[in-house]
Fold this sequence. Notes:
With 262 residues, the protein is mainly beta. The chain has two helices and 21 strands. The protein has helices spanning 6-9, 16-19, and strands spanning 26-29, 33-36, 43-54, 61-67, 73-77, 81-83, 90-99, 106-116, 119-130, 134-137, 141-147, 153-155, 159-165, 172-179, 185-190, 193-196, 201-211, 218-227, 232-241, 243-249, 252-258.
Amino acid sequence: DLGMSYDYQGAGMADVKAAIPIAAKVTSSPAVWEVTTDPAIKESSSSQSFSVTPLVSDINTLTVSANLTIDGVILSFDKTTLSVGGKTTDTFVATLWVDNDRVPQGYYSGAIVLAEGGETKGIIPIYLTVKPTLTLSPAEEIDFGIDNPSLSTWISDIYNVTITNLRQDIAQSVSANIAGFPAGVTAVINPSAFIIPANGSITIDTQLRVNNTGLANGFYSGFLTFSGPTASLAVSGKFIKYYVLRVKAPSGLVDFRGSPAL
């Protein structure tokens, strides 16, 4: 089973040929199949034709099978037997279906296996990218500002985040939360749970509330997280807890930041 999700595989692609250590005795064109889903619809499908030629003369018949087990993904072939005697070339068509209602966003890998008599003669790696069905704006970072250490509780300004539903056929339920901030930091998210209509978007208010008791001066960061049925996105957030000394200079006002109490 080579169905590997993002959590196990990370942001890169697994080396499927390394995962199935064989000395290939056939060649295929294309040699690798990369598939990216369409996040706008329920069922995303892609088809690819392959030409297969043996590298040795003692291969006559190849069976075509899938080594890809992911819930919500189906891989099928227009034929499962290839006639390649005498180093001749045969072709087949593979079709990959992905159910966007069931498969979480991420990167997955697998292979088409070419075998004779139960012995693998070669593989065609498959790299599948399941795109998220939600997007965020801003996508990078929210700077919540400067926490004044003289306050027992600091409340940041309000910043907006827009979440867009890329699905054109269904609404999606989304919940928002925070993660990674230190104890004493909470988020005021309004609303924190909502339904985005098909092909629609919603803008929410986000704000940090910081209990300064026991929280040292410094730089702090975390994430605002947004979770849907199969999509999970995050935007980073940060704030600084420092004193600010404002000095009036001939050129104008100048701010100085420092960690010790002034």
